[in-house]
Amino acid sequence: MILAFIPNSECDPPDRACLRIIKCWVCGHAREQVPQRFLDEITCEKCHTLQPPHPEYNYYDLFDKAPTFNVNVKNLQSQYRRSQTLLHPDKWSMSTPEQKRNAAQQSSLLNKAFRTLRDPLQRGLYLLKLRGMPMEEGTDNNDPAFLMEIMDINEAIEDAETEAEISVVHEENKKQIGDVIQQVSEAFKEDDLKRAHTLMGRLQFYENINQLTTHWHPGRRLTITH
């Protein structure tokens, strides 16, 4: 099976604007230029055969977006629905085994991309990975003030006996999440990846607290990780 695109050797690293088209894996037709929209390039413009996923594309490419932290989630969702209307495997159920496989792969990749980019935490972690600074498992934050804050939150959750008490922790934590997301956005805008990396570690902790306090009930022992 021939992929629809190959990277242009003059581009380092390769991105969508630098891709040169080969040809459709079925009819051999080659476009004259790379389409501007993802939906315009996943099928051959001549025989309308569904093409396989391009291995060089990142999640942002599937939504025609630049790799930035700030994303319009409503717009993302609209594009996702339009793409899935075309890519859903049911639409290709009467096609050849190759096109069924392409549809399943394209749809699965689009699902993963959407779940990642719609969520600030997952989006930030993915963006760090794209920029060469992935968040490794067990990454510690050694800032004394933050460590003290962790201890205080742990104590507040352990001491909580009523929903009203845990609600106070939950609402305060939501404010912290909002503040950190804003700081992460600014760090990425300024291309301060080291600060973005540190802030994403904090956001992971606050999101963990959010999950725990959301599902809290009296007598349940909570385990907080950071």
UniProtKB/TrEMBL annotation:
<keyword id="KW-0143">Chaperone</keyword>
<feature type="domain" description="J">
    <location>
        <begin position="58"/>
        <end position="130"/>
    </location>
</feature>
<dbReference type="InterPro" id="IPR009073">
    <property type="entry name" value="HscB_oligo_C"/>
</dbReference>
<comment type="similarity">
    <text>Belongs to the HscB family.</text>
</comment>
<dbReference type="GO" id="GO:0051259">
    <property type="term" value="P:protein complex oligomerization"/>
</dbReference>
<dbReference type="Pfam" id="PF07743">
    <property type="entry name" value="HSCB_C"/>
</dbReference>
<dbReference type="InterPro" id="IPR036869">
    <property type="entry name" value="J_dom_sf"/>
</dbReference>
<dbReference type="GO" id="GO:0001671">
    <property type="term" value="F:ATPase activator activity"/>
</dbReference>
<dbReference type="InterPro" id="IPR001623">
    <property type="entry name" value="DnaJ_domain"/>
</dbReference>
<protein>
    <recommendedName>
        <fullName>J domain-containing protein</fullName>
    </recommendedName>
</protein>
<dbReference type="GO" id="GO:0005739">
    <property type="term" value="C:mitochondrion"/>
</dbReference>
<dbReference type="InterPro" id="IPR036386">
    <property type="entry name" value="HscB_C_sf"/>
</dbReference>
<dbReference type="GO" id="GO:0044571">
    <property type="term" value="P:[2Fe-2S] cluster assembly"/>
</dbReference>
<dbReference type="GO" id="GO:0051087">
    <property type="term" value="F:protein-folding chaperone binding"/>
</dbReference>
<dbReference type="InterPro" id="IPR004640">
    <property type="entry name" value="HscB"/>
</dbReference>
